[in-house]
Amino acid sequence: MKIRSNEKGQIIVILALGMVAILGITALAVDGSLLYNQRRNDQNTADSAALAGAGKAAEKLKDYLPSDFSCGPGSTSLARQASDLAVAEAVKSALDDGVLLDPYDLSNENGVTVRCETDSEGMQFLDIHVMVTSEPETTFGRVISVNTLRTTTEAIARVYPNQPFAYGNALVSLADTCGKNVGGVWFNGDSTSFINKGGIFSNSCIDAGGSSTVDVVSGTVKAFQPGGCTGYVPAHTVTPIVPCEKADAKLPRGMIPPPVCSGVDRGGGSYTGTETLYPGNYSGGITVKNGANITLSPGLYCISGGMTNHAKSRIYGEHVTLYFQDASTVLFNQNDDTIGYGTELYAPSCNTSACGVPDAVQGLLMYFNPGSNNTVQLNGGSHNKYVGTIYGEDADFTFNGGAEIYTFNTQVIGRYIFVAGNAELRMDLNSKQWVQRPASISLIQ
Questions:
Q1: Cα separation, 246 vs 223, whole angstroms
Q2: How far apart are CA 220 and CA 238, in angstroms?
Q3: pLDDT tens digit string along 186-214?
Q4: Antiparallel, parallel or unpaired: β 200-202 and 436-437
Q5: What is the pLDDT of residues 165-193, one digit of tens each?
Q6: pLDDT in tens, 344-368
Q7: How far apart are CA 311 and CA 187, in angstroms?
Q8: H/E element holding 153?
Q9: Where are the beta strands (DSSP E) in 269-384?
């Protein structure tokens, strides 16, 4: 067979074209792998730097109260101090990986900055934002005049400072079902409630009708259940009126673990006269009789059988946590405003031995065992003061307020909360005296 002369040399063209294709694929594989590896290394650097900065900021914030932190203009700047520490630590971390970050500058896409913002629930936070950019030299790309490739990675670590539990709300129902004596927050009849620097939250519903008045200042009113705000139509006296709104998410159970009892047996029972009680287990409950003057020493009181005081008595406890361990009744029945009588209970304000801890819990005034359907009645009055978080996710609370000065600086978390018919509930709040959610960090990008 003869080969035509015009077919000679075609194989060389095919081989040449094939070699170009093979070289292109090889270049893509080699330079692509180089770029991928560089990007992965840069992402690790960015993640490590953002988390290192966030950790440094959280370390700074952990010893401060929520009220000490502010994103607002003119804040002194605990937020600024934490930001500066975060930036310095992020720069240091990246430098260990051979990357130089510009402090508070992302314009070159190789830096770190910090934003102080507020989330949808009103919680303030810091975002540590790191960008790392590299331009690795190509191996084959330079054949087509591509000498370098560019890759940019980002990481954002979020830092929440210490926060009060339950978004800082004063009255909270964790029940999923709405109904009287079942769940929700209820304001009845002629009751008047004034809540300053705190809000109202329910996993189910909030109900306030008739001639009840509910005034919320510097707080919100939210219910999660569809239609949970339907019954919230009180007569307001303060403007602007705070409406009830649909909550975006429910609050979980189990937010606060049970305290740990020491095991010291104190017996319990009825008390008369002037006595000082000490931390320990009170298996016989605590009943304070008429005329008694009882002082609770700092620490944790683990109580079975409930606690009751009579109208003409005095109870004073500073740096105390009352842990009710069974389904008993707790009644602070203080109806006599005679000077010398009253109930004053203050949760621990620190976490050192000076406040009776570690047994007692900072910010926790009362704790009711989950699963125990306690009945709790708290009565206000000019000589009664309750300060701290009261936590009973399966407890039912009734408030009978007093017409005089503010008496409750409490965050009450329960199953069912009821403000009685003609009660005047006055709550002038300060969340820094409640249980705190520790500072936390998370990598969000």
A1: 5
A2: 14
A3: 998 888 888 888 899 999 999 998 788 89
A4: unpaired
A5: 787 889 999 999 999 899 999 998 888 88
A6: 999 998 877 777 777 888 889 999 9
A7: 25
A8: strand 151-160
A9: 269-271, 274-277, 280-282, 286-288, 293-296, 299-303, 307-309, 314-318, 320-324, 329-332, 342-346, 364-368, 375-379
- Give me the residues paired with residue 441 across strands: 159
Q: Quote the tokens at residue 413.
A: 């978390």
DSSP string, 125-151: EEEEEEEEEE-PBPSSGGGGT--B--E
In one-letter notation, the amino acid at residue 148 is: T
Q: Are residues 435 and 350 in contact, defined by beta-carbon separation less than 8 angstroms?
A: no
Residue where the block lists tokens 């701290």:
388
Residue 61 structure tokens: 């914030």
Q: 164 in helix, strand or coil?
A: strand
Residue 343: CB partners within 8 Å, gap ≥ 6? 309, 314, 315, 332, 334, 383, 384, 385, 386
Instruction: Tokens 């000082």: give the residue.
Output: 276
Of the given ranges (81-90, 256-265, 305-314, 381-390), which has the lowest mean pLDDT?
381-390
Whether residue 216 has pLDDT greater than 70 = yes
Is pTM beyond 0.90? Reply is no
Tell the residue number behind the tokens 């009789």, with chain if given.
289
In total, the chain counts a number of residues equal to 445
Residue 404 has pLDDT above 60, yes or no: no
d(CA 40, CA 238): 57
CA distance 408 to 431: 12
